[in-house]
Amino acid sequence: MTAVFPATFWLLFAAAMLISSIGFYKYVYFISLGYGFSIAGLGLLILAMFWPQQSVATMVCCVLFAIYGCRLGGFLLLRELKSSSYNSKMKTEIKDGKTMGFGVKCAIWVTCAALYVLQVLPVYYRLHNGKGGDIFCWAGAAVMLFGIIFESAADWQKSRAKKKNPQRLCDTGLFRIVRCPNYLGELIFWTGVIISGIGGISGWGQTGMALLGYAGIVFVMFSGARRLELRQNRNYGEDPEYQQYVKTVPILLPGVPLYSVAKYKFLVA
Q1: Which stretches of 78-174 are assigned E, i.e. beta strand?
Q2: Got the DSSP string for 211-248?
Q3: SS3 94
Q4: Quick count: other Cβ atoms within 10 Å of Cβ 207?
């Protein structure tokens, strides 16, 4: 019962591989649309695979995976289809993959799919181990829901601010708490997933795999924060208001006096 890689684990991996293969159409989709829709698909697959064993709490967690993934994937897709200014900026920020070899793309594909599976393991292992729902599962679900709401609000606030003044940095609303509140929402969501697994994960192997997935998404969020900081430094670096903003508002974690990650070159994803 405490197997780290049971047969159903490989079904999840196959599903993540299938969904994230959209990255072969456009390289960035491995980590954008492929990410969001993979998490949604994995949530629904876990819901279906363990349907007879589902408790209300685990069902809620699976549904929250689907909501989270569809919201994120839908937001990214809509932004790409409707925002020409965003697309023109991203051409210089993210590799288009045209010069990347097929083998390298395959390696990225497999790595991304593996990470997406690792991220949902706390809920998966709880069901695989027959633990059902408990107070930790419910607490985790509540944090997950808060993370979705927080991230959605940050995305909405930024979109609204950019429509009002496309050339101005968004520094209102949740952006007064941290400079990357959408990434903070992601961290809150995945922290909730880890909480949901407390008491449901068995053995060091399962614990290690779940924590590896959490560490992976934390790294990706800090990497994204660094990429955003470098872009904003280029765009607003001469603005006194921006200089004051970055000196007083933490980049990602509220209350933690970490104001810049630009110098941390290992944060590349």
Answers
A1: none
A2: HHHHHHHHHHHHHHHHHHHHHHHHHHTT-HHHHHHHHH
A3: coil
A4: 16
How many CB atoms sit inside 10 A of residue 113's CB?
A: 26
Yes or no: say if 38 and 19 are a contact pair by the CB < 8 Å rule: yes
- Tokens representing residue 202 in the block: 């068995």
Neighbours of 78 (CB within 10 A): 11
* Distances from the Cα of 124 to the Cα of 46, 94, 106, angstroms: 7, 33, 26
Spatial separation of the C-alpha atoms in residues 105 and 149, rounded to whole Å: 33
DSSP label of 168: S
State yes or no: pLDDT of 196 exceeds 90: yes
65 neighbors 139 (Cβ within 8 angstroms)? no
CB 67 within 8 A of CB 152: no
* Alpha helices (H) along the chain: 7-20, 33-49, 56-82, 84-93, 102-128, 135-164, 181-197, 203-236, 240-248
Q: Locate the domains of the chain by residue range.
A: 7-248
Give me the count of residues in the chain.
Answer: 269
Rg (CA), the chain: 19
Q: pTM here?
A: 0.92
pLDDT digits (tens, 9 = 90+) for 34-89: 999 999 999 999 999 999 999 999 999 999 999 999 999 998 888 877 755 555 55
Cβ-contact 160, 89 below 8 angstroms: no
Contact in structure between 233 and 260 (CB atoms under 8 Å): no
Q: Are 152 and 218 in contact (CB under 8 A)?
A: no
Report the 10 Å Cβ neighbour count for 45. 21
